[in-house]
Amino acid sequence: MTLIEWEEGRHLVGVDEMDSVHQEFTLIVNRLGETQDPSIFKSLFIQLLEHTQEHFALEDQLMEETGFRGFDEHREEHERVLKQMHYINEKVQAGNLDFGRAFVEDLPRWFDLHADTMDNALAVHLKAAPEADSFAV
Ligand SMILES: [Fe+2]
Ligand SMILES: [Fe+2]
Q: In whole angstroms, how far apart are CA 84 and each of 2, 31, 32, 37, 38?
Protein backbone atom coordinates (compact mmCIF):
# COMPACT_ATOMS: atom_id res chain seq x y z
CA MET A 1 0.00 0.00 0.00
CA THR A 2 1.35 3.43 -0.97
CA LEU A 3 1.11 5.34 2.28
CA ILE A 4 2.31 8.75 1.10
CA GLU A 5 1.34 10.09 -2.31
CA TRP A 6 4.08 12.62 -3.03
CA GLU A 7 2.56 15.88 -4.22
CA GLU A 8 4.91 18.69 -5.18
CA GLY A 9 2.37 21.40 -4.41
CA ARG A 10 1.78 20.04 -0.94
CA HIS A 11 5.10 18.53 0.08
CA LEU A 12 7.87 20.62 -1.47
CA VAL A 13 9.24 23.24 0.94
CA GLY A 14 11.62 24.81 -1.59
CA VAL A 15 14.96 24.04 0.07
CA ASP A 16 16.70 21.38 -2.00
CA GLU A 17 18.43 19.39 0.73
CA MET A 18 15.22 19.25 2.79
CA ASP A 19 13.10 18.28 -0.21
CA SER A 20 15.39 15.44 -1.26
CA VAL A 21 15.50 14.08 2.31
CA HIS A 22 11.69 14.24 2.45
CA GLN A 23 11.41 12.38 -0.86
CA GLU A 24 13.72 9.65 0.45
CA PHE A 25 11.64 9.47 3.62
CA THR A 26 8.49 9.04 1.51
CA LEU A 27 10.15 6.24 -0.47
CA ILE A 28 11.14 4.27 2.64
CA VAL A 29 7.70 4.72 4.24
CA ASN A 30 6.02 3.51 1.05
CA ARG A 31 8.30 0.46 0.85
CA LEU A 32 7.35 -0.33 4.45
CA GLY A 33 3.69 -0.01 3.49
CA GLU A 34 4.11 -2.28 0.50
CA THR A 35 6.17 -5.21 1.78
CA GLN A 36 4.51 -8.34 3.10
CA ASP A 37 7.86 -9.90 3.99
CA PRO A 38 8.65 -9.71 7.75
CA SER A 39 12.43 -9.73 7.31
CA ILE A 40 12.29 -6.98 4.68
CA PHE A 41 9.97 -4.98 6.97
CA LYS A 42 12.50 -5.32 9.80
CA SER A 43 15.43 -4.14 7.72
CA LEU A 44 13.40 -1.29 6.18
CA PHE A 45 12.44 -0.17 9.69
CA ILE A 46 16.12 0.11 10.62
CA GLN A 47 16.66 2.03 7.40
CA LEU A 48 13.79 4.36 8.35
CA LEU A 49 15.31 4.93 11.79
CA GLU A 50 18.78 5.69 10.45
CA HIS A 51 17.40 7.91 7.71
CA THR A 52 15.24 9.83 10.17
CA GLN A 53 18.25 10.41 12.44
CA GLU A 54 20.10 11.98 9.50
CA HIS A 55 16.99 13.88 8.37
CA PHE A 56 16.47 15.48 11.77
CA ALA A 57 20.20 16.09 12.31
CA LEU A 58 20.33 18.01 9.02
CA GLU A 59 17.39 20.22 9.99
CA ASP A 60 18.68 20.71 13.56
CA GLN A 61 22.03 21.81 12.14
CA LEU A 62 20.41 24.23 9.68
CA MET A 63 18.30 25.69 12.49
CA GLU A 64 21.22 26.09 14.87
CA GLU A 65 23.60 27.58 12.35
CA THR A 66 21.12 30.12 11.01
CA GLY A 67 19.67 31.17 14.37
CA PHE A 68 16.14 29.93 13.66
CA ARG A 69 13.78 31.20 16.38
CA GLY A 70 11.63 28.06 16.44
CA PHE A 71 14.68 25.83 17.02
CA ASP A 72 13.80 24.51 20.50
CA GLU A 73 10.23 23.55 19.65
CA HIS A 74 11.19 21.93 16.33
CA ARG A 75 14.13 20.02 17.86
CA GLU A 76 11.93 18.79 20.71
CA GLU A 77 9.43 17.45 18.17
CA HIS A 78 12.26 15.63 16.36
CA GLU A 79 13.42 14.14 19.68
CA ARG A 80 9.89 13.01 20.52
CA VAL A 81 9.43 11.24 17.18
CA LEU A 82 12.90 9.63 17.27
CA LYS A 83 12.36 8.35 20.80
CA GLN A 84 9.10 6.75 19.74
CA MET A 85 10.71 5.33 16.60
CA HIS A 86 13.48 3.73 18.68
CA TYR A 87 10.88 2.17 20.97
CA ILE A 88 8.86 0.79 18.05
CA ASN A 89 12.03 -0.47 16.38
CA GLU A 90 12.83 -2.58 19.44
CA LYS A 91 9.36 -4.13 19.17
CA VAL A 92 9.77 -4.73 15.43
CA GLN A 93 13.21 -6.31 15.75
CA ALA A 94 11.80 -8.58 18.48
CA GLY A 95 9.19 -9.78 15.98
CA ASN A 96 6.19 -7.63 16.98
CA LEU A 97 5.58 -6.31 13.50
CA ASP A 98 2.05 -5.12 14.26
CA PHE A 99 3.52 -2.28 16.37
CA GLY A 100 5.63 -1.29 13.38
CA ARG A 101 2.76 -1.46 10.92
CA ALA A 102 0.50 0.69 13.11
CA PHE A 103 3.30 3.24 13.58
CA VAL A 104 4.10 3.38 9.86
CA GLU A 105 0.43 3.80 8.95
CA ASP A 106 0.29 6.89 11.18
CA LEU A 107 3.44 8.44 9.67
CA PRO A 108 1.74 10.07 6.64
CA ARG A 109 -0.47 12.14 8.95
CA TRP A 110 2.53 13.17 11.04
CA PHE A 111 4.62 13.96 7.95
CA ASP A 112 1.92 16.09 6.31
CA LEU A 113 1.48 18.15 9.46
CA HIS A 114 5.20 18.43 10.26
CA ALA A 115 6.21 19.37 6.69
CA ASP A 116 3.38 21.88 6.46
CA THR A 117 4.11 23.59 9.76
CA MET A 118 7.57 23.25 11.35
CA ASP A 119 9.56 22.30 8.24
CA ASN A 120 7.79 24.89 6.15
CA ALA A 121 8.55 27.61 8.72
CA LEU A 122 12.22 26.55 8.68
CA ALA A 123 12.29 26.62 4.87
CA VAL A 124 10.79 30.13 4.79
CA HIS A 125 13.49 31.23 7.23
CA LEU A 126 16.30 29.60 5.19
CA LYS A 127 15.07 31.12 1.94
CA ALA A 128 15.01 34.56 3.57
CA ALA A 129 18.63 34.09 4.70
CA PRO A 130 20.70 33.48 1.54
CA GLU A 131 23.84 32.93 3.58
CA ALA A 132 22.16 29.75 4.87
CA ASP A 133 23.35 28.08 1.64
CA SER A 134 26.86 28.03 2.99
CA PHE A 135 25.66 25.86 5.87
CA ALA A 136 24.32 23.13 3.61
CA VAL A 137 25.77 19.73 4.38
FE1 LIG B 1 11.86 17.39 7.65
FE1 LIG C 1 11.55 18.78 10.88
A: 22, 20, 17, 23, 20
